[in-house]
Design goal:
By secondary structure, the protein is an alpha/beta fold. Helix content is 32%, strand content 20%. One of its GO terms (molecular function) is UDP-N-acetylglucosamine diphosphorylase activity.
Amino acid sequence: MLSLEEVKQSLESAGQSHVLQFLPELCEEDRDSFLQELSQLDLKGLKDHCEGAAKAAASPSASLDQHLEPVPPQVIGSVKKSDKNSLTAWETEGLLKISENHVGVLLLAGGQGTRLGVQYPKGMYNVGLPSNKTLYQIQAERIYKIQELADVKHGSKCTVPWYIMTSEFTLAPTEKFFKKNNYFGLKPSDIIMFEQRMIPAVTFDGKVILQGKGKIAMAPDGNGGLYQALVDNKVLEDMKKRGVEYLHVYCVDNILVKMADPVFIGFCVSKGADCGAKVVEKAYPAEPVGVVCRVQGISQVVEYSEMQQETAELRGPGGELVYSAGNICNHFFTRAFLQDVAENFQGQLKQHVAIKKVPFVDTYGNQVKPTKPNGIKMEKFVFDVFPFSRKFVAFEVLREDEFSPLKNADGAATDSPTTARNSLMAQHCRWVLAAGAKLLDEHGNILPPKAGVLAADNSPAQCEISPLVSYFGEGLEPLLRGRTLPTPFILDEKLAKELQAL
């Protein structure tokens, strides 16, 4: 821990001496813990951080439109446009890499589920499925199943390690939750949790915000804080030791995420890519998602706010959107590329400005809850490393099969527990019907073949298939063909064994 004098000097040279204005009023214990917190800050970089934040917030975002072009077709694979033989070959390659212990998954676990109206990590959220499984349990069971599929195909006994990046507020509850649930059947040693850095929130004139008399207002540094966190927590060394060469990186809130998707991994490996992004076709031009495209010939994600309306609405000869590759925070990286970023490019990552309402203490020491935005939180995004890639590829997937994020509380039109739950159950209805079974509604009527098509005005049949039974619809035909199934229908391991025995 730095001495008080050292902290004072560092804050003065950064133009932030106001941070210690209430120090004399603190008791000894609070003073010590405040100095401890300040010692852990990057005091050398504080001046640049504060000045950079104020400057970035004051600068209008530049229009990129004249420099944009779509990602060229030769670097895009697609579940609907690529031929069946290629898709099968990619899946085979992906399963081989998994069986050889060369694949890991990395979860960007995010913060608390504040927008969902809860104060615990998003991954612990239960969207109301018949099984009452949380996002964490669904994801853990998919890892378990993909290991099993690779083992069956290759006679291996493989492991897909699960790296979980949390924030300061979510590490302890996440660890406790996994322990309480016996790590959902996975080995505790194969689940590696680590914390991203927190950075100070800053006023519009570049001053660090005091949240309390002895507490700085801190915020996680965005999911692009991953690259610093990999270094801070020696995660890259752990990956190397385990033989992990390829990483599937994803966000916690997508209920349909295919963990360590062998098709995506096989596609990226086959193309010799060091960096890849899954994309979905944008639903409409103004949909608020970033677009994977090229800027002056370099692959990157352009946020919807950085693209003018007329550019977003451009259409090709077939009527399709020119800029349609919606980013879904679902990425492939080689470990070598992550090492390269950590060693050579981290300082060049773009900083993004988030203007927020940040509670603070005024000059008299009174606690203030602002009614309008008063502070800047600087964030990095995980996709900001795309421009450093030597071989970037994109892989288009179907939204209804692979993307249904959970962001808002129920009552919102999109991205709510209800829409996430319905997306999963509609997918499972499609799997059951594709396996040659029929589903009955609550009145005993046979549901039509379009029962798995999710319309805005209806809920799908209550149908849920455990990931421990099927990863992505495979293996269901021998169990279900020719059967007529009442709903709610929950296919777990126990029922699967019973059906197998019949």
